């Protein structure tokens, strides 16, 4: 197997061997390393989404493509666990942050499921109910569509947050705070902000803590459409440092028991106009 350093120096180097854990035993195969690129961020615009253009020549896209090719080989079936982030990082010759963000993209496409503390697993296509919504953008994405999507997502996230407030306590607020702290390095020093700006792990965690399976299913469909629509439009809505700051403020209000203020912040976190185009 090529070392990570050698793979980086050679860019699109030879294929690299991988090992994955399947219900049927250990699976071996090959995956090609990806090269590296640098991205640039647009300045934030108060009251609107920052609208960061997506660059199309990038290591990040190659990471996503290699991971997607890996799944397409068919060696892993629904429910099988992918190699760890560290193993994938070594295979591809890129940082773990790039791998983590690539996995999040595949999760937004409904191809894998990321289980905190356990790993990434191949999703069951039969359980992916987002396909009907995704048909709405088969012919492209307009600004009008994104405006309607923002309105729809705002309504869903408001319902989710209200459900969370009903069960909020020190323990689950601490879980939410830990997620924000764990995401800090990735949010403040992203490998590629133009891709990670659609990160919805914070909102998904809030919904998970409600224990409401119906809301979780509804939110997942909207999140899938959200991530795919913005990328197809050619922009992502916000800079990660802005998202992180907003997450911290929401946590602060929750910790103080200021639930109405936290709800207002959560709505403002999502309900922004489109700007910067």
Give a short synopsis of this structure.
This protein has 277 residues and is mostly helical. Helices cover 55% and strands 11% of the residues. It has a two-stranded antiparallel ribbon. It has a two-stranded parallel sheet with strand order 3-8.
Chart the SSEs and their pairings.
Blueprint: H1 4-10, E1 16-22, E2 25-31, E3 48-49, E4 52-53, H2 59-72, H3 85-92, H4 96-108, E5 112-115, E6 119-122, H5 131-134, H6 143-167, H7 170-188, H8 193-196, H9 201-210, H10 213-233, E7 235-236, H11 240-255, H12 259-270, E8 273-274
Parallel strand pairs: 3-8
Antiparallel strand pairs: 1-2, 4-7, 5-6
Could you walk me through the main structural features you see in this protein, from its secondary elements to its overall organization?
There is one protein chain. This protein folds into two domains: 4-38 and 56-126, Winged helix-like DNA-binding domain superfamily/Winged helix DNA-binding domain (Arc Repressor Mutant, subunit A, Orthogonal Bundle), CATH 1.10.10.10; 131-274, GntR ligand-binding domain-like (Four Helix Bundle (Hemerythrin (Met), subunit A), Up-down Bundle), CATH 1.20.120.530. The chain contains twelve helices and eight strands. It has helices at residues 4-10, 59-72, 85-92, 96-108, 131-134, 143-167, 170-188, 193-196, 201-210, 213-233, 240-255, 259-270, and strands at 16-22, 25-31, 48-49, 52-53, 112-115, 119-122, 235-236, 273-274. The strands form four sheets. It has a two-stranded antiparallel sheet. A two-stranded parallel ribbon has the order 3-8. Strand 1 and strand 2 form a beta hairpin. The longest helix has 25 residues, at 143-167. It starts with a helix and ends with a strand. 36% of the residues are buried. The model is unreliable at 1-16 and 21-46 (pLDDT under 50).
């Amino acid at each position: 197997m090529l070392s990570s350093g050698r793979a980086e120096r050679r860019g699109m180097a030879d294929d690299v061997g991988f090992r994955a854990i399947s219900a049927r035993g250990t699976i071996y195969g090959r995956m090609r390393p990806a090269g590296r690129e640098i991205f640039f961020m647009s300045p934030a615009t108060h009251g609107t989404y920052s609208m960061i253009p997506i660059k199309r020549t990038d290591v990040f896209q190659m990471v996503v493509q290699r991971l997607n090719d890996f799944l397409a080989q068919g060696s892993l079936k629904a429910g099988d666990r992918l190699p760890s982030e560290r193993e994938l990082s070594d295979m591809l010759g890129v940082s773990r942050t790039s791998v983590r963000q690539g996995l999040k993209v595949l999760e937004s496409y409904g191809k894998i499921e990321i289980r905190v503390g356990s790993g990434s697993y191949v999703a069951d296509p039969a359980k992916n109910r987002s396909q009907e919504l995704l048909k709405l953008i088969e012919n492209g994405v307009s600004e009008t569509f994104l405006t309607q999507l923002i309105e729809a997502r705002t309504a869903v996230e408001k319902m989710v947050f209200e459900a969370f407030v009903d069960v909020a306590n020190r323990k689950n607020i601490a879980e939410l705070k830990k997620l924000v702290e764990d995401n800090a390095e990735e949010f403040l020093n992203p490998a590629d902000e133009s891709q990670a700006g659609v990160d919805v792990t914070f909102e998904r965690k809030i919904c998970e803590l409600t224990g409401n399976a119906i809301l979780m299913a509804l939110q997942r469909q909207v999140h899938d459409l959200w991530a795919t629509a913005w990328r197809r439009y050619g922009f992502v809505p916000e800079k990660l440092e802005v998202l992180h700051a907003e997450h911290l403020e929401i946590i602060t209000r929750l910790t103080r028991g200021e639930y109405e203020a936290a709800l207002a912040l959560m709505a403002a976190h999502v309900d922004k106009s489109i700007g910067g185009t």
